[in-house]
Amino acid sequence: MEGPSGELSFRVRGMVCNLCALRVKRALEGLPGVEEAEVDLETERATVRHKGGGVSSGNLGRAVASKVVFSRLRRLLGRFGKPIAE
After folding, report:
1. What pLDDT score was predicted for residue 2?
2. What is the residue range of 23's domain?
3. Tens of each residue's pLDDT in the chain, 86 residues
4. Is residue 58 in some structural domain?
5. Separation of alpha carbons 78 and 65, rounded Å
6. What is the DSSP string of 19-58?
7. pLDDT of residue 80
8. How do 6-11 and 45-50 pair as beta strands?
9. 36 within a domain of the structure (yes/no)
10. Residue 80 DSSP symbol
């Protein structure tokens, strides 16, 4: 999915709170070539505006997966009184 400047929209599953959505947004915006990201918890969608070049579906997917998994693990451990730091 590499190519010229543009916009990509895709589904993000597994977000359970606004903090999850914020972490995903920050992870996406931290990728090279990404100019802006919008993440909607209710619709489970993310939209990324990019400059092209190094932006690929694989890079986006890895960035999202790492944050969603971490958020879910943190929430689960917090229920057992074992909070984890970021």
Report:
1. 47
2. 6-79
3. 445 688 989 998 888 888 889 988 998 999 888 999 999 999 999 999 998 667 877 888 888 877 765 565 555 555 555 555 55
4. yes
5. 20
6. HHHHHHHHHHHTSTTEEEEEEETTTTEEEEEE-SSS--HH
7. 58
8. antiparallel
9. yes
10. T
The answer to whether 31 and 59 have CB atoms below 8 angstroms apart is yes
**Confidence at residue 37, expressed as pLDDT on a 0 to 100 scale:** 94
pLDDT of residue 8: 87
Query: What tokens does 7 get?
Result: 């916009």
3-state secondary structure at position 85: coil
CATH of the domain at 16: 3.30.70.100
- Here the tokens at position 37 are 């990201």
Radius of gyration of the chain (CA): 14
Q: Which amino acid is residue 65, in one-letter code?
A: A
